Amino acid sequence: MHERVLLIEDEPHIVEALSFLLTREGLSVSTHADGSNAAETAARLTPDLVILDVMLPGKSGFDILNEIRGTEGMADTPVLMLTAKGQSRDRAAAQAAGASMFMTKPFSNREIVANIKALLE
Amino acid sequence: MGISASYLNLIEHNRRGIAGRTLLAIARELELQPSELTEGADASLINALTETAKTHSSAQPEVDRIEEFVGRYPGWAKLLSELSRVSREQRETLTAMTDQMAHDPFVSETMHQILSNITAIRSTASILATAGDIPADMQARFLANLHGDSQRLSETAQKMVDFFDHDGETDPSGPATAVAHDFWASHDHVPPPDAQPALKCGPHDAPVLHSTLERYQSIQSALPAEAFASTAAKHGFDPLTLAQQYDTSVMAILFRMAQMPPDMGFPVFGLIEVDMSGAVLMRKPTPELALPLYSSACPLWPIYRAFAQPGQVLRATLEMPSGDRVLTYALSEPLGNGGYDLPALLRSTMIFSADHRVMSQAPAAPVLAGLHCSVCPRKHCDARRVDYILA
Prior knowledge:
InterPro entries (chain B): Cro/C1-type_HTH, ScfR_C
Strand content of chain A: 15-25%
Organism (chain B): Neptunicoccus cionae
Domain HTH cro/C1-type (chain B): 1-37
Strand order of the largest sheet of chain A: 2-1-3-4-5
Number of helices of chain B: 16
Oligomer: heterodimer
Pfam families (chain B): ScfRs
Number of strands of chain B: 6
Mean pLDDT of chain B: 81
Distance between the termini of chain B: 80 Å
Protein name (chain B): XRE family transcriptional regulator
Strand order of the largest sheet of chain B: 2-1-5-4-3-6
Shape of chain A: globular
């Protein structure tokens, strides 16, 4: 059974590249591009791991993470947060909201795949 | 006079400066004005150099010989003091510009777009370079994505260059206002009561800062923070009711609500104040609502509509493209007494909060607004004046 990853990211070309990479690694990838109902999608799919962008249209990644952590059965789901800012306050906010890992854009393919595998172990 | 002959000899040969009681005693003895004796050994110059020496203590300047230095080489001393002043002002300007870089919504949004583009390009290029057996249709798709992303990156970078390229022109109101903004931000928007005397000289001499400090000091005595906090909570943080309760102006209440000490549990209110040209006079952003540093906010904000109804408090809920909502109170008032046949000068103030205790008073139908057009993704907006940079 493939492990399931939910990628919540609004930049379509990043979505395509990451989906391609992760599918090749044997993962099943679902995607969601809008912040407004991302937590509902996560609750419906109950993925094994969530990749979550911080800046999304409709709702911030931090708010979505809070909602995911409040969803039954998802309190311990690994969440990898992505941001294009990389400021220390974003990192602190991600940790406070319960992110499992935090990566800043631009990242290398090798690095993100390694981190995702580590979170799924 | 209480000084030794050898010390007097040093003074006579400009190797020691004189000030204070010694200066007065010598002046009295010689029947001269003290100012006639201090020429060339300016006490303020000595003070300035002492400050400079403290700031750059790593150079181990001979602090105990500053008076001698000023006495023997007054020209070099003035030059050093002047260079130190220029250096300090440039540091402050740099700090203000850094603040603009960090908080300007356009810069922040553009940087986000540039980094997202770079991420997509890097990731896609890496796949094309390292993954050997990519199906032809995927390969073509990735190449098209690379082309599109590189084009967008180039356009966004050009917009960024245009944003900073002012052909060497500077806004004379900019640095002074930035100093005021920096002051308010560094004091958590609540100035210490004794701040004003310390800010009456030097680069802090910004009219905007003094005007707001004076207003703060007047409301601080009329509306003490602790009593105000409990009264405001009792009346649902409603500015009109509070103005009636305290028999004061609504503007004073708005200002007080946005300038409460941060440790009192009072709802956090942001504040923005603009003149009739739209220039930002004062700003206190909150996490829910960023504010422009100088101008160019969203024209749908009630702070601008308030100019059409001076003296009328406007209440509106603003919904940002992110979905964040804030309740706003806006009010414009005339400045000074004006003059015959002159246009009225108005200043408009808007406070806002996303606190649930405040939002309970919010009108249900929000105004769908943004920060300013270049970072607002709303389509079909009649108020739009420039394109959304990510469109």
